[in-house]
């Protein structure tokens, strides 16, 4: 009589499913962190007056681009 044990198959499947779920959650956490950094940088720069921006060498039209580069590392 032959006996087949499928415990390893289900264990591997469960492990792959859990690893995939962990990857999805980690990616979501990274995206959330970058988005928070973008928003906080954008809000800080928007709160500055035109004179303060000029002192920093930033024009008001550059705020979105600068915020994006701070958070994501490249321009859109």
What does this structure look like?
The chain is an all-alpha fold and 76 residues long. The protein has one domain (7-72). Helix content is 75%, strand content 0%. The chain has helices at residues 7-46, 50-56, 63-72. Helix 1 (7-46) runs antiparallel to helix 3 (63-72). The chain is rod-shaped, with a radius of gyration of 24 Å. The model has no long low-confidence stretch (mean pLDDT 90).
Summarize the SSE layout with pairings.
Elements lengths: L6 H40 L3 H7 L6 H10 L4
Helix pairs in contact: 1-3
Descriptive key words:
single chain, 76 residues, mainly alpha, 75% helix, 0% strand
Instruction: Report the biggest beta sheet as strand number plus sense, adding barrel if it closes.
Output: none
Number of strands: 0
Q: What count of domains describes the coordinates?
A: 1
User: How much helix, percentage-wise, in residues?
Assistant: over 70%
Write down the secondary-structure element order: HHH
Strand content: under 5%
Work out the helix count. Answer: 3
Structural class: mainly alpha
Poorly predicted regions are none
Shape: rod-shaped
* N-end to C-end Cα span: 65 Å
Report the radius of gyration as a whole number of Å: 24 Å
Mean pLDDT: 90
